[in-house]
Amino acid sequence: MSATLLYPPPGSLIDGWQVSKALGDGGFACVFLGEKNGRHRAIKVAQHRESSGDLKQTHARTLRELTALLMLDHPNIVRPQGHGLAESGNLYLALDYVDGWTLAEWAERKHPTVREVLGVFEKIAGALSYMHGRGILHRDLKLSNVLIRKSDGEPVIIDFSCATYTLAEDLTDAGLPPGTDRYRAPEQFKFLREHKDERRARYAFQVADEIFAVGVMLHELLTDPRPTEFRPRFDLNSLALPPPPPRLVNARVPAELSDLVESILARDPKKRPVDTEALRRELAELRASASAEYDVPVHSPSKQRDGGPPPAALAMPSTPQSLKRHVAVFERPRSPVWWRGGLTGFVTLVFVALIWSFSTVDRGPSAEPRVTTGPRSPVTTYSAPPKTAPPAMSPPDSSPVTAPGPVIAAVSKEGSTVKTPPPESPIAGRTPRVPKKSVAAVECASLSLVAALAAGCPGAQIRPEAFTCPAGAEEAMREQLHWEYGERFSLHLDDRQSAWDEVWFTAGAEVVGVVPQGLSDDRQLAVAPAGTRFYGRAYYLSDKMGRADGPALVIRYDRVKLPGQADYPVCVVHEGSVVAFKNGKVKSPNRGAGHAVDRWP
Fold first, then answer.
1. Which structural domain, as residue segments, surrounds residue 488?
2. 309: pLDDT strictly greater than 60
3. Inter-residue contact 252 to 296 (CB < 8 Å)
4. CA-to-CA distance for 567 and 25, rounded, in angstroms?
5. What pLDDT score does 384 carry?
6. Residues 406, 551: one domain?
7. 145 and 83, same structural domain?
């Protein structure tokens, strides 16, 4: 019996388990809530990739997950309750059904205090220590893979699809093990860079990688009031820029906790806690602190409920992929001369945007009253995290200006701080006039990188980063999808907007393209059938950025999902005409062609 992808409707049976509803759909399995003899279980069905042509390899990962889980028995780790074969031939696991929220949902719904967050992460670290003591590595720790059980508030680590254990067979051909890029430690990308010409090089995943992933989870909960929102975020594993100290983004974070998170996210793995047991002890020590600042909600509950604008520092576009993935997959050179020369300008612009964006972050219950504008205290760079709460920096409002304008700080090439002089003192009884250049500097500093590039801000006159393909894209396009370079796809560029009209694209925003129905191109139907979805990001190019052919909307799609199949990393680029550009948004027809490429430009 050949295994196929299984999407049973509610009420159907999986080896006697009656399906109630779907719980999730990942790259290696689909999960359903099943009921049998009054028992409820999470039924995880192996998701067969038709293009692999290897049924045993498809199920080998599920068998390895089962083996790892059978070696574990911990209250904060999901437990296996059985396994078998579905009617389609797909292997399935029956697991504990955890009725709960993901970590991100819990943080938004329950508004936990700093102490409560530490209690949860202390138990997560304890479970990981237990797991690592048995030679098992999870390898895909993230906010969505930890559930907080509604009945008792206990954290439960789930989804061991990417897990491995001592002497387990290697199932991955790529340089890096399976996992989620945002939570990967920076040394993984460094490994790819150093071994880009070694096709058989494989990264050895370590406990230090798991500790870094825990640090990313903790940093996100401490700095982002709405972590479930789908939007670009500042990469915490950039090879070029260290992450901002949590206390600099959110003054409610105690200084000692901020320091610990910084050590967990250290670029050098030797500077992180030596193992997860050491991490658990440090978390427990902080949780036991008598300081009242640990009993304050991490974020303002009203800000979480109302869904106000997120901190600009966390809503910035991710670190350029050319800094993270410019290695490993394609053998052609990855680093154009213009990018190497523009790195200093990029670093400067990011620092300016981050420093200004911190003025919009919630400063906690002790924040000073909002003022219009005025002299600001010196801004501390990332290399020197503050030990005390930074001064409140509130965004401008419509009140009369009664003090000199803001001082915008930037970091020069040598690392010194350069300040723009404040405007002259105002005449009594008259609202001061801020020079246009100062206004432009403030506006540019508050923009995201891509929007600043599009707006022609000073210091931003470099082209957007070269598009390099994500890890595994070449192999996926060649081996699984059977695409050739130059393959053309007719697309609705963003399926969330009107299909055939001219629509607005926000520079730097994520888009979802789809292959429309009713195509007459038989070749296209063969390579990308109707309903195929492409996931990517929009960019804007103009003659100011070195484009000779006039302004253009550029969309880079780096992930695809064909109907009935898993997600694959890809490299597909669309370049289309621009009708209008305004305030960081591009107006363009919501239709066009995408082309499979090995890099761009």
1. 469-600
2. no
3. yes
4. 10
5. 37
6. no
7. no
Residue 157: inside a domain = yes
Q: Pull the structure tokens for residue 116.
A: 């409560």
336-358 tens-digit pLDDT: 333 333 343 444 344 434 444 44
User: 50: which DSSP letter?
Assistant: G
Q: Quickly state the pLDDT bin for 366 (edges 50, 70, 90).
A: very low
Quickly count: other Cβ atoms within 10 Å of residue 73's Cβ: 10
One DSSP character per residue, 297-363 reads: BSS-HHHHHHTPPPPTTTSSPPPPHHHHSSSSS--S----HHHHHHHHHHHHHHHHHHHHHGGGS--
List beta partners, residue 357. Answer: none
Which residues, 6+ apart, have CB-to-CB distance to 500 below 8 Å?
589, 590, 591
pLDDT of the residue at 518: 66
- Stretch 408-432: mean pLDDT, rounded? 39
Looking at the fold, whether 106 and 140 belong to one and the same domain comes out as yes
Distance CA 394, CA 370 (A): 6
For Cα atoms 76, 82, 85, give the angle at the middle one, nearest 5 degrees: 135
Q: How far apart are CA 439 and CA 450, in angstroms?
A: 19
Together in a domain, 214 and 315: yes
Identify which of 192, 188, 79, 190 has the alpha carbon closest to the alpha carbon of residue 139.
Answer: 188
Distance CA 124, CA 77 (A): 9
d(CA 77, CA 128): 9
State which of 96, 121, 141 marks the end of a domain: 96
Distance of CA 566 to the CA centre of its chain: 19
Tokens of 365: 């219950």
In a domain, 273, yes or no: yes
pLDDT tens, position by position, 464-512:
445 667 878 888 888 888 888 888 888 999 988 887 788 998 877 888 9
This prediction has a pTM of 0.55
Mean pLDDT, to the nearest integer, of 513-538?
76
Decide if 460 is inside a domain. Answer: no
Position 152 confidence tier, pLDDT thresholds 50, 70, 90 = very high
Q: Which helix (H) or strand (E) holds 147?
A: strand 146-149
pLDDT at 122 over 50: yes
Count how many domains the chain has.
4
- For residue 6, is it within any domain? no
Q: Domain boundary residue among 296, 324, 352?
A: 324
Cα torsion angle, 264, 265, 270, 271, sign: negative
